[in-house]
Amino acid sequence: MSELTILCDVQACAIIYGKHDTQDEVWPSSVGVQRTYTKFKTMLSMEQTKKHLNMETFLRQRIEKEKDQLRKQKKKNHEKEMSIMMSKCLIGRSLQGFNMEDLNDLGWMINHKVEEINRKMKKVNDELAQNEQSKPCGKNTTATSDQRQNDEHAASSGITYGDDDPTRPSATSADGGA
Question: What is the DSSP letter of 16?
Fold first, then answer.
């Protein structure tokens, strides 16, 4: 009984008696039993019974919990089936043989995946834009797009230039600025 009161964080008492025993066993003590019993009796009847649970109520609650878990598992299984169906469609499998409900579910899943991809792309684009804004704009640290194009053209044609090579194509505008 001591372990039960500790594990469940409840107040409890026990009176144990037998047919052939002349003395009843009491836990925690006679005074403790009297105190717990008095406290219980002074509670409102609603408070006394609010945590009572008979076997029928317990089983109903357990059945409802299991039904809920079954519904969740069926939903997961259906989503996995739709993912498999979508994968098969992507490799060229025909949609013939699927019922209308499956096709509707497949359409919903495709729309959901497209929305998810769009959200991720927006997030990546926002991060890239934020990173571009936080880069320093020094003359020596960034190359103009014309310089990059010249460097790419030179690399693809096998030409190499040093940084101080006077024959390197310059990316200057008509007014002479970089």
Answer: E
Nearest alpha-carbon partner for 11 in 19, 34, 170: 34
- Return left, alpha or beta for 176; rule: phi > 0 is left, psi -120 to 50 is alpha, else beta: left
DSSP per-residue letters across 42-98 = HS-HHHHHTT---HHHHHHHHHHHHHHHHHHHHHHHHHHHHHHHHHHHHTT---TT-
**Is residue 116 situated within a structural domain?**
yes
Number of domains in the chain: 2
- What digits encode the pLDDT tens for the residues 109-132? 889 889 999 999 999 999 999 988
The C-alpha R_g of the chain, in whole angstroms, comes to 39
82 Cβ contact list (under 8 Å, min separation 6): 102, 105, 106, 109
Assess contact for 27 and 14: CB atoms under 8 A.
yes
Q: Estimate to the nearest angstrom the gap between the alpha carbon of 156 and the chain centroid.
A: 47
pLDDT tens-digit map of 152-178: 555 554 444 455 555 444 444 444 444
Q: Does 125 share its domain with 107?
A: yes
